């Protein structure tokens, strides 16, 4: 809830990145891409500082290439010396204080499949416990941990997800164990609820120890019965929704509107312009058009309805739109975005368009990372699709259809108590979640005590028999 598994997010990269220096950029994106001698256009283009120099990053299906914007040098192999500089810049600590090792296999902090294509890595450790993993494939920081974040993960995310290295690095086996464990937990909790309701007597017809009682138990069994009746449903739904996170029932995902999703995204971007479309305004000009107080850390080359524009991203994830033809803007108008979506949705129609200024049932973020305001559109297609669009980027940030709405409540609603009222009235959500978790802990403790008593009794009987 409060301390996640260590990771490097786009926000982390942005916060540690230096601002771009417009005066060091001497090449246009077309000139830089020509250095790669590729016959096909890139899928994505970004301009950011890499190893202290402005650099274009061209991404395509065959990987990512880096071309420095100051002299057109193409980045070749990422040497250990460069990796150390990258890691030291990330931490702000002296490079000569770090110890290093080569990581060729999964360890506890690089055990998931997302790291498979990034090995081998260089791992750098400083005396204060900071550890930085730099991929020798991309030259970037791909994982970062501290003593505190590792400790938090050992007590939280690792046991919660069964993220133990020996198990997690075998993806299929890990998936099966998580699904079966949560499935058995759901079944056990459901059976416990059935038994508890079955034996419960509102009229107190039982007489354990000579006193009237609603349940025929005393001691730990009595505590377990009442805790199960109070918290058993939550234990059952929590285990079941956790199982759903592993997608054990693919049919629940049927009906996903991948085609309409792609059409809506393409409708916003339009026909992708080539790099020559940015010749009308160079990256240097785009940066100098922005207010001097806006320190651009990343410049993305994008388009809206086929018109090229630069997306400048600064500290705190602030964004500015710099059209190739025109002055910088804070956001696109609702009318322009709506019209682009209307054309893309045909033959379906937009049945609802509104501006979302606060989080709602299908647009929630406990950490406040989803952008506000957002533009909501509803379609009358077969899947009843709906989308939330960020006007600062003209990009879809969230989408739902009939199937994903159901899964939203079955997983996020039941597992994370992802409900609008609780999320918008903190610490109400924290109090409810912690209360239910404490009740679940108490229920588990009584289960273990009862199981221990049974095992001890059976072992004693076996010993006497022998």
Number of helical elements = 14
Strand order of the largest sheet: 3-2-1-8-9-10
How would a crystallographer describe the biggest sheet? 6 strands, antiparallel
Radius of gyration based on Cα positions: 28 Å
Give the integer mean of the pLDDT values: 92
Helix content: 40-55%
Terminal CA distance reads 50 Å
Q: Tell me, what's the shape?
A: globular
Q: List the quaternary state of the chains.
A: single chain
The chain-level structural class is alpha+beta
User: What is the chain-wise order of helices and strands?
Assistant: HHEEEHEEEEHHHHHHHEEEHEEEEHHH
Strand content: 15-25%
**Total beta-strand segments:** 14
Unreliable stretches, pLDDT < 50, 5 or more residues? none
What does this structure look like?
It is a single chain. The chain has helices spanning 10-16, 29-34, 80-91, 147-155, 157-161, 165-168, 171-199, 219-244, 258-269, 283-289, 334-345, 402-416, 420-424, 428-465; strands spanning 44-50, 53-60, 63-68, 99-103, 121-125, 131-135, 141-145, 296-304, 307-314, 319-323, 350-356, 374-379, 386-390, 395-400. A six-stranded antiparallel β-sheet has the order 3-2-1-8-9-10. A four-stranded antiparallel β-sheet has the order 4-5-6-7. It has a four-stranded antiparallel β-sheet with strand order 11-12-13-14. The chain has a domain at 170-248 and 429-466. It has 14 helices and 14 strands. With 466 residues, the chain is of the alpha+beta class. 40% of the residues lie in helices and 19% in strands. The two termini are 50 Å apart.
């Amino acid at each position: 809830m409060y301390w996640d598994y260590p990771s490097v997010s786009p926000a982390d990269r942005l916060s540690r990145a230096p601002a771009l220096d417009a005066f060091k950029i001497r090449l246009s994106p077309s000139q830089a891409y020509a250095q790669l001698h590729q016959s096909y256009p890139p899928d994505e283009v970004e301009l950011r500082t890499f190893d202290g120099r402005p650099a274009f990053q061209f991404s395509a299906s065959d990987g990512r290439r880096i071309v420095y914007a100051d002299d057109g040098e193409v980045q070749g192999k990422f040497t250990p010396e460069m990796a150390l500089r990258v890691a030291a810049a990330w931490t702000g600590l002296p490079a000569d204080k770090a110890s290093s090792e080569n990581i060729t296999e999964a360890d506890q902090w690089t055990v998931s499949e997302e790291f498979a294509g990034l090995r081998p890595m260089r791992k750098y450790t400083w005396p204060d416990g900071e550890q930085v993993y730099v991929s020798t494939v991309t030259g970037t920081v791909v994982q970062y941990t501290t003593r505190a974040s590792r400790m938090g993960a050992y007590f939280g995310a690792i046991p919660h997800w069964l993220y133990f290295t020996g198990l997690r690095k075998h993806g299929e086996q890990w998936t099966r164990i998580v699904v079966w464990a949560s499935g058995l937990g759901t079944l056990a909790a459901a059976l416990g609820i059935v038994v508890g309701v079955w034996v419960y007597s509102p009229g107190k017809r039982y007489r354990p120890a000579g006193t009237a009682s609603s349940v025929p138990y005393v001691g730990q069994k009595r505590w377990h019965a009442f805790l199960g009746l109070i918290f058993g449903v939550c234990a059952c739904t929590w285990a079941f929704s956790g199982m759903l996170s592993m997608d054990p029932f693919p049919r629940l995902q049927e009906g996903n509107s991948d085609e309409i999703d792609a059409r809506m995204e393409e409708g916003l971007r339009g026909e992708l312009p080539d790099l020559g479309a940015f010749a009308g305004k160079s990256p240097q000009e785009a940066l100098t058009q922005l207010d001097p107080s806006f320190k651009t850390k990343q410049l993305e080359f994008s388009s809206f309805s086929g018109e090229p524009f630069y997306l400048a991203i600064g500290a705190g994830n602030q964004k500015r739109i710099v059209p190739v033809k025109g002055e910088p803007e804070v956001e696109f108008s609702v009318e322009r975005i709506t019209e682009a979506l209307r054309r893309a949705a045909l033959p379906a129609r937009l049945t609802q368009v509104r501006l979302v200024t606060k989080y709602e049932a299908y647009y929630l973020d406990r950490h406040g990372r989803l952008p506000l305001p957002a533009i909501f559109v509803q379609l009358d297609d077969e899947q009843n699709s709906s989308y939330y669009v960020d006007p600062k980027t003209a990009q879809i940030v969230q989408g739902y259809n009939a199937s994903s709405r159901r899964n939203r409540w079955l997983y996020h609603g039941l597992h994370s108590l992802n409900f609008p009222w609780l999320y918008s009235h903190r610490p109400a959500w924290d109090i409810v979640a912690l209360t239910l978790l404490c009740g679940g802990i108490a229920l588990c403790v009584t289960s273990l005590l009862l199981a221990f008593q049974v095992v001890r009794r059976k072992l004693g009987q076996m010993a006497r028999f022998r």
